[in-house]
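Q: Hi! First time doing this. I have a protein sequence and I read that you can turn it into a structure. Is that right? Here it is:
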Amino acid sequence: MYHRLILLIAFCLFNTLCQAAGIQVGRTRVIYNEDKKEITLPLINKDKESPWLIQSWVDTGNGKTRGPFIITPPLFRLDPQKEQSLRITWNGSALPNDRETLFFLNVRTIPAVAKDSEEKNVLHLIYKMRLKLFWRPTDLAGTPGKTCENLQFQRDGARLNIVNNGSFYSVFDSIHIGSKTLTSVEWIAPKSQLSVNLPASIGPGKITWRCITDYGNASRLFTPPGEG
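A: Yes, that's right. Below is the predicted 3D structure, encoded as structure tokens:
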């Protein structure tokens, strides 16, 4: 007999807590300030009966290349109703010092297998949570909030051009053009420009937007200068 494995990916984007099966992560994003020796991320097994095996690593965004961070412990068992923190340490590799850099923290949770099910055809669910990890150099100009507020939007026919002159990533909670919601843009990197095609259903209208804050909630509503 054999075990069938299904991989479920849970992206932690907008909730203040991220949870896959019985494992709860206390944050939806991780901010690593350069002046920190290490940071921690608490994990809690909310399951009342089952232990889970936890495996964690950081990648650069393509899902293959590992990021310049060491996670301790990289693999461990988390018993029911217990909490343990991941310790995340930068390995000293050179990174840009004039802007944030985005990485992704992966937390894979694997359920324990009971001995009496080892010879049975059992469906097991493996969950993978993927959180944004922002490397934040010291002494960056401005703030994440001001960066979001100062984004520039320009409508050019069926295209929308977005400019981020700030030093921080802006991850969007929402972008509205009139009464329509633009769902195709997740974030814009610091010191970059982005041009996106607009759906035919989006007509003329005032552009408004909100960003996700460091705490995982939505910022206040922003409008272009003179349109507030």
